Amino acid sequence: MTKIDIISGFLGAGKTTFIKKLLEEAIAGEKVVLIENEFGEIGIDGGFLQDSGIEIREMNSGCICCSLVGDFGRSLSEVLTKYEPDRVIIEPSGVGKLSDVMKAVCDVAGEIDVVLNGSVTVVDAQKCKMYMKNFGEFFNNQIESAGTIVLSRTDVADADKVAKAVELIREKNPKAAVVTTPIGRLTGAQLLEIIEKPTDDMAAELLEEVRQGHHHHEDEECCCGHDHEHHHHHHDHEDEECCCGHDHEHHHHHDHEEGECCCGHDHEHHHHHDHEDGECCCGHDHDHEHHHHHGHDADEVFTSWGLETSRSVSLERLNEILHDLAHTEKYGTVLRAKGMLPDENGVWHYFDMVPEETEVREGAPIYTGKVCVIGSGLKEDDLKELFH
Ligand SMILES: Nc1nc2c(ncn2[C@@H]2O[C@H](COP(=O)(O)OP(=O)(O)OP(=O)(O)O)[C@@H](O)[C@H]2O)c(=O)[nH]1
C-alpha cells in the first residue's frame, strides 16, 4: 500500500520548505517519490531533492488542473507501477485546485493499491487575507479541501495577522488542524503525525478521563505504547508530557476526593444518609452508582470547552488565569483544565488544573496553542475572553 500525500499551497507559500522538512526529518527511511507539477519552469526545485537521493518524476504537461484526470492519473499510475514507493508526495502547481488533485488520486486508488493519506495546504500567514480576496477561486478551494493547514511565516508575521488568518481559514474549514507554530520549531515527526491524524480531540479525551474517573487506561492499552500501569508506581514521565496527549500526572486525583462540590454538601458521606431520596440543590446527580467514581453522573453534568489559538500568553498571565479557574467560580465550576500555550518568547507552558490545584511546566512546542476546560455551568463566552 502506497501512501499518497498532497502538499498544496499558493505560489511561494512554502510547500518546498515543508516537504523538505518532512523528507529529511520524518520519512528519511522510506522510498519516496515526489511528484512536482511546476507551472512552467520545470526542475527549479529538483536540486536539493536529487541531493537527498530521492527519485523524481517531473511532469512537463503543465498545470495539473488543466490536464488532470487523464494525464495526471496515468502519470501517477506509471510512477506507482515503476517505483513501487512507500509514499508519494504530490506537490501540485500553486494554482491547482486541491479537490481536483484529490479526486485524481481517488480515481487511481480504485485501480492500484494506494491510499490518500494526507491533504495539506500551506498558507502564507501574511498573505492569506489578500489572496483570499484576489485569488479566491484557487486559494479557497485549497483551504476548504485540506485536512491540515500549515501556516507559513508565522515566525515573522505579526500576531494579529496570524490570528486573523486563522479566523478566515476557520470560516472556510472548521475541521482541519491548523498549524500556527513556526514549523522550524516543530519536528518533522510531529508534522507527519498531524497530517496523518488531523483530528486530535483533546476535549473528548479529557472529558472521557473525567467521566471514567481516570482509570480508563487500566484495562486497555493506550495508543502511545507506554506502559501506564507502571507509571502510577514509578512516576516515570514525571517531567515530560507523553506523546499520547493523555495526562498521566493527575490520574490519581481529581475526583472531588478532597475538593468540595459547588453545592456545599459533603458527597463523601453521601452513601450513608444525606440526600438518599431527595434531590440535591446543586443540579448534579449524586446517584449512588456513579458516586464511587466521581460523585456525579458525568454524562449529564459535565461539559467541555476547547480552544485552539495562535496567541501567546505570558507565564504570569497564565498563572493568574489558572488561579481564577482553580479557586473561583467566575467561569463556572471547573473540574479540570489542561492545555499548552506559548509565551511571548516562544517558550511552551503545559498546564494542568484541578480544583484548588494548578501546575505549569515547560514542554516542547506543539502545532498550535490548546486549552481544554471541563466542568459544569461553564461560562464559555467568559472563558473565550479570558484566553484572548
Ligand atoms: N520566514 C519564513 N520563510 C519561509 C517560510 N516558509 C517558506 N519560506 C521562504 O519562502 C520562500 C518560498 O518558499 P518555498 O518553500 O520555495 O515555497 P513554494 O510554495 O515551494 O514555492 P513555489 O513552489 O515556487 O511556488 C523561500 O525563500 C522560503 O525560505 C516560513 O515559515 N518562514
From TrEMBL:
Catalytic activity: GTP + H2O = GDP + phosphate + H(+)
Domain CobW C-terminal, chain residue ranges per copy: 302-387
Key word Ribosomal protein present: no
Coiled coil start-end: none
Domain of life: Bacteria
Domain (CobW/HypB/UreG nucleotide-binding) ranges: 6-179
Family annotation (InterPro entries): CobW-likC_sf (IPR036627), CobW-like_C (IPR011629), CobW/HypB/UreG_nucleotide-bd (IPR003495), P-loop_NTPase (IPR027417), Zinc-reg_GTPase_activator (IPR051316)
UniProt keywords, alphabetically: Chaperone, Hydrolase, Nucleotide-binding
Family, similarity comment: Belongs to the SIMIBI class G3E GTPase family. ZNG1 subfamily.
Protein name listed in UniProt: Cobalamin biosynthesis protein CobW
Species name: Enterocloster hominis (ex Liu et al. 2021)
